[in-house]
Design goal:
The chain is globular, with a radius of gyration of 16 Å. The chain is of the alpha/beta class. The chain has a 7-stranded mixed beta sheet. The protein has a single domain, classed as Vaccinia Virus protein VP39 (Rossmann fold, 3-Layer(aba) Sandwich), CATH 3.40.50.150. It has 6 helices and 7 strands, in the order H-H-E-H-E-H-E-E-H-E-H-E-E. Helix content is 29%, strand content 29%.
Length: 204
């Protein structure tokens, strides 16, 4: 559980699993239910992959920046942006785990199914804080603790999901406030159901 997954190789076929599209739709809906989004907001989707969540939220925001460390994933997203004419979406190749930060400030930072691939989460949350305007929000969706049943191959998996208490503790340690955690979606995989939590929080 210490190797990094090759997301470049996975990019071309990533969207072919309907459950991934369904998850992005449900997480986007949960974010809109829990955060008062605005067309005046600039947002960043961390670990955006092929943009399944990015493009769901883009129409209700002023701008959306998709950030990922996989050039293959971003190539797929850039093709979608061009094909569907998203003028308010752009991408940045960036590895926040290595201390790289995109430019700009944001009103909202989102991620979906990214945290369990991050070894040290509190330092990441601290980095994200520096990118947010005062009063800005994070909306982070990931698996509820599942004991290792979800991933067929645990390459690049550093956490087997999270409890609500764990997510709240990490956000508190990183200095966030107004923390709220709800079940945003469920994933059905091989007749097993896996809840997905959405943690939202603000910076002062």
């Amino acid at each position: 559980m210490t190797e990094r997954r090759n997301f470049d190789a996975a990019a071309l076929n990533w969207d072919e699993k309907p459950r991934r599209v369904k998850l992005a739709t449900e997480v986007a809906a949960a974010i809109q239910e829990n955060i008062p989004l605005s067309k005046e907001w600039d947002a960043l989707d961390f670990g955006c992959g092929t943009g399944l969540l990015t493009l769901q939220l883009a129409p209700v925001l002023r701008s959306m920046t998709g950030v990922d460390s996989s050039s293959g994933m971003l190539d797929t997203l850039n093709n979608k942006i061009q094909t569907h004419g998203f003028s308010n979406v752009h991408t940045v190749l960036c590895d926040l785990e290595k201390g790289e930060l995109p430019s700009g400030r944001y009103h909202l930072i989102t991620s979906s199914m990214t945290l369990h691939h991050i070894k040290e989460i509190v330092p990441l949350l601290l980095s994200l804080k520096t990118l947010l305007h005062p009063g800005g929000w994070v909306a982070l969706a990931d698996l509820e603790f599942e004991g290792g049943r979800f991933h067929d191959e645990p390459v690049g998996v550093f956490h087997l999901g999270f409890s609500s208490e764990e997510l709240a503790e990490m956000l508190t340690k990183a200095g966030y406030s107004s923390i709220s955690i709800n079940t945003a979606a469920t994933i059905v995989k091989v007749d097993q159901t896996f809840p997905v939590l959405l943690a939202t929080a603000q910076v002062d």
